[in-house]
Amino acid sequence: MGERLGNFFPSHLDCAPMSESEAKVSPALGDMNAEEFRRHGHKLIDWIADYFEHIEEFPVLAQIEPGELKSQLPTAPPQTGESMEQILRDIGRLIVPALTHWSPPSFFAYFATSTSAPGIFGELLSAAFDNKAMLWRTSPASTELEDVTLDWLRQMMGLDAGLTGIIYDTASVSSMHAIAAAREGVELRIREEGMSGRNDLPLLRVYASEQAHSSIDKGIITLGLGQRALRKIPTDSEFRMDPKALAAAIDEDKRAGYLPFCVVATVGTTSTSSIDPVPAIVPICERYATWLHVDAAYAGSAAVVPELRHVLSGCDRADSLAVNPHKWLFTPFDLSVLYCRRLDLLRRAFSLVPEYLRTPEQEQVRSGSDYGVQLGRRFRALKLWMIIRYFGQEGLASRIREHCRLAKLFASWIEESSDWELMAPLPFALVCFRACPNFEGVAAEVLGARLDVLNEAIMHGVNATGKALLSHTKLNDKITLRISIGNIRTGEIQVRQVWELLNEQLRLLTQKKTS
Ligand code: PLP
Predict the structure, then answer these.
(1) Mutate which of 113, 211, 239, 270 for ligand 1 pocket (most atoms within 8 A of beta carbon)
(2) Which of 121, 204, 301, 383 has the fewest CB neighbours in a 10 Å radius?
(3) What is the pTM of this model?
(4) Contact 150, 166 (CB under 8 A)
(5) For residue range 260-277, what is the model confidence (pLDDT) as tens digits?
């Protein structure tokens, strides 16, 4: 099996055979010396450069069975150190073949994302500095660079100056913190007394569309609000929250004695990238005095493109907004930003300074750990700062603009073909579609199920080639395929190639069925 795994690793990327004299194990004490570090570091950077140069030779989806990697690894740790050559060789031989590669330009699944060279350098430096930005003094650089970089990003997205940013790992965590701040704002002493065992608390309600990301449900579960606290609002034919239904739901809940305290709107939903009508949602939130959080994890980055800035219209009146540079700003995972108008509430919800963390300057500075559950925080701002400086706003905008152009091109092929149909509008660079060939003689009652089976088979067929990766969703109860274009390397060639792969699968599967 090891050999089979090894076969997936292009030989030119294999680490040079180890020479006994070169293969040094760790010293008895202390770290690797500078000379060794330099030698391995240069080799590793060369290896990464080769990896990207040959990225299209790797199967996008890992071609291994569950448990296959584990069965190749020793079950007990080594008692004595091994040489870096041995370790790197195993990375090539065992780890790389077990990767689903997110960097190939034919990665179209979920939301296609990608790292970038300045982002990788930022990660490398951040690991070298190893700062724990819990207090200003434990990393003034991280704390202050985060403020500056997030203010740059705010300006690039055209967001209101009243929104201040803070970095978390993921949008799930950003949104959870936003809901916690909203809850702090209802003045029910939940921080101090919790929610359990209290008869004086009404049912607290959060509203999000039925297309909202599952991270909102998880945030509510984590905060102890309970799943019944989340009321899902229906969407229209284009998968956007229905504001009238929202107002009616809040009204009904208020009459029932519940406490509506937060509405989550999504700009760029996960299934279709639809945009909830924030300008119509804002007055409802104002009328009922609820916090408005906008989940723009995917599509917020599009506002960096001047002609797409309108997608955030209304968001200047939101209380908070989450955006993920690790989704569509070429930032290595992870980096999510929460912009919040009421940082004081976020701080009230989370700040807790024991004696051993007290510092003389604490009243003058902003310390990251005051705004979330984490104490130590990674120096994530560095990579985003380097990315923004390297590409500039125009460079980032042109890449996102090109992704949107490619998605529209792909959609135009779908529209021109009688074998395929679009399943949702495409405001950004995500195309939702399905095969719908003319199945003559198939009864209407079974046609839907037949198309679902066909589309799943097409997706698995394309993915099994290793030449591209796409994913699916269900829209109006129909299996829908998704092509998301967001990788920094994706060009028209790969988009044409996946279109051919899809048609090839369709031909294969429909011929087999009819013969
Ligand atoms: N919100 C939306 C709209 C998303 O599409 C996603 C993930 O795709 C998330 C939130 C969760 O993102 P993360 O993985 O950063 O928690």
Answers:
(1) 270
(2) 121
(3) 0.94
(4) yes
(5) 999 999 999 999 999 999
